[in-house]
Design brief:
By secondary structure, the chain is an alpha+beta fold. It is built from six helices and four strands; from the N terminus they run ββααααββαα. It is about 40% helix and about 15% strand. The strands form two sheets. The chain has a two-stranded antiparallel sheet. It has a two-stranded antiparallel sheet with strand order 3-4.
């Protein structure tokens, strides 16, 4: 990890991909994980397809579901959303969240 100060006084940090994986900030596949310093900023930033006015109508129909124990949201088809909601995975996820509350 390298740090430097920009001409305007802003601290700049450069970290290699391998260092980010070793710190648990990124997965080996390149996903930014919840421990990453910019995770919240990344999570709250709309994706390019939502920002692109030519595709806004399409992107508003996207569905995202948290698949599996990794807690990551992935795009899902309508059939996958129905399966998630009505075949027990959603209820199991809610119970898991309740069990992990501080």
């Amino acid at each position: 990890m390298k740090t430097s100060t920009a001409s305007d006084g802003t601290l700049e940090i450069a970290i290699s991909f391998d260092e980010a994986v070793a710190k648990g900030w990124s997965s080996p596949g390149g996903l930014i994980l919840s421990g990453h310093p910019i995770f919240q900023e990344t999570l709250n930033t709309p994706s390019w397809d939502i920002l692109n006015p030519l595709r806004f109508g399409e992107s508003s129909n996207q569905r995202h579901v948290v698949f599996g124990a990794d807690g990551l949201m992935r795009q899902a088809t309508d059939a996958q959303v129905d399966c998630y909601l009505y075949e027990g995975e959603y209820k199991t996820r809610l119970l898991s969240i309740e069990d992990n509350k501080p």
